[in-house]
Amino acid sequence: MTEVVPSYASPTGQEIVFLLLGVMAVGSALLVVTTRQLVHAALWLVVCLGALAGCYLVLTAEFVAWVQVLIYVGAVVVLLLFGIMLTRAPIGRAADLDSGNRVVAAVVAIATAAVLVTVVIDGFRTAYAPLDPGAGSAKEIGATIFRNWVLPFEALSVLLLAALIGAIVISRTDIRGRS
Amino acid sequence: MHVVYPAIVSALLFSIGVYGVLARRNTILVLMSVELMLNAVNLNLVAFDVWLRDRLHGGQVLTLFVIVIAAAEVGLGLAIVLALYRNRQTVDLDRLRALAEPPSGAGPETGVPADPGASTDPGTTPETGAETPVPVPGASRSGAESSGSAPRSGAEPGSGVTGASAERGSGPGNADNGGRDRAGGGGGRSGRGGASPDEPEHTVRVEEAP
Asked: In which residue ranges is the amino acid composition biased (Low complexity) (chain B) (predicted)?
């Protein structure tokens, strides 16, 4: 967007904070997919999502950050922990959490990372986004949701209701089909 | 803020999610990896929304929508996982092969002694036992048909009967063996998978509040 791009050699404070949070998110995500204990994977997921919420805060998307904390860290991880508990997963160290195709998966993931990082660096090397606070506050986002995005918002609420009813129907045992 | 930084972080998160989806066996861990991939997309959306200064805030609103859809997806996914666990007693993705093609040749219990042409050689039974630890009724039928249609040489009737009975005796042992070398020493897992997991009397109800 802008013509003059500040150099990469002198990062601003925001960039340093963002990079630290990004390293934290990537590291805890690596632990999520490599840890041997199922419950620890869920707890490292909390760390990863929290660091991502911090990234959103640095990017001035405050409302998205708090929604991330509320829904992901609050609801989704608790739901995953419920799933771990209800499937009677082994609590301690389990040896069989990885399937046999770890090597193939690592090769595919490294290839994906290489392609994406190369393309992204090549494409957005000169892109610079100056951060001005307040652009993603609850007031702005609320106004734009209820002014411009009302129809998708309502459709999404119907979708959420359908998913809720579907989850109840699937998980209850005394509801049978019509047979 | 350079746009490259969030883009690189989200690319790395996405590929970590790809690794988790491909390499994990537990269904809940696969769901967690899917969450990682969705979060990578969210970070990209927010970063590009900030960069492009969208007047409608399309990126951030779409991020909120993706978060809501991810919540719905996790709810439905866990309901499916719980139903699966109730019926199969396992959430292991490697053991859920009911939709796979039955292996050509014969399953472990399909060697019918009345059909002398159906004596499959015992060399093929270990990998068939390892690939179908869950006996599916459709698979046994089609396995019997394919084994009946496959002419094996050296099938005199007497050896057909003994071969079939021997391989039936070694069938569950082979399934256990396959489960053990797949799990890499998970003793409790292989014992649980060895007892054929889709009989309805093994169904364990998940405790629910009335």
From this structure: 120-159
Residue A179: predicted pLDDT? 65
**Which of A29-33, B38-42, B54-58, B99-103 shows the lowest mean pLDDT across its residues?**
B99-103
State yes or no: pLDDT of B200 exceeds 50: no
Residues B89 and B105 in one domain: no
Q: Rounded to whole angstroms, how far apart are CA atoms B194 and B76?
A: 29
Q: Is residue B201 part of a domain?
A: no
Average pLDDT, chain B: 66
- Residue A31: per-residue pLDDT: 95
Among B38, B64, B93, where does a domain finish? B93
Do B28 and B105 sit in the same domain of this protein?
no
* Chain A contacts in chain B segment 15-34 (CB below 8 A): 15-20, 22-26, 28-29, 31-33
Contact A105 B57 (CB under 8 A): no
Is B8 in CB contact (< 8 Å) with chain A? Answer: yes
A112:B208 CB<8 A? no
In a shared domain, residues B130 and B88: no
What domain range is B137 assigned to? Answer: 101-196
Per cent of chain A over pLDDT 90 is: 61
User: Do B77 and B121 reside in the same domain of the chain?
Assistant: no
Residue contact B51–A64, C-beta within 8 A:
no
DSSP, collapsed to helix, strand or coil, labels residue B139 as helix
When CB atoms are compared, the residue of B5, B47, B186 closest to A95 is B186
Same domain, B78 and B152: no
A19-28, A119-128, B1-10, B159-168: range with lowest mean pLDDT: B159-168
* CB pairs A-B closer than 8 Å: 273
Backbone torsions φ then ψ of B27, nearest 5 degrees: -65, -35
Chosen from B33, B34, B64 to mutate, greatest number of chain A CBs within 10 A? B64
**CATH number of the domain at A13-133, please?**
1.20.120.1200
Cβ <8 Å between A64 and B63: yes
- Is there a contact between B3 and A124 if contact means CB atoms under 8 Å apart? yes
- Within 10 angstroms of residue B31's Cβ, the number of other Cβ atoms is 22
For the CA atoms of A44, A45, A48, A54, what is the dihedral angle to 10 degrees? -120
Q: What is the pLDDT of residue A58?
A: 94
How far is CA A170 from its chain centroid?
26
Q: What ipTM was predicted for this assembly?
A: 0.91
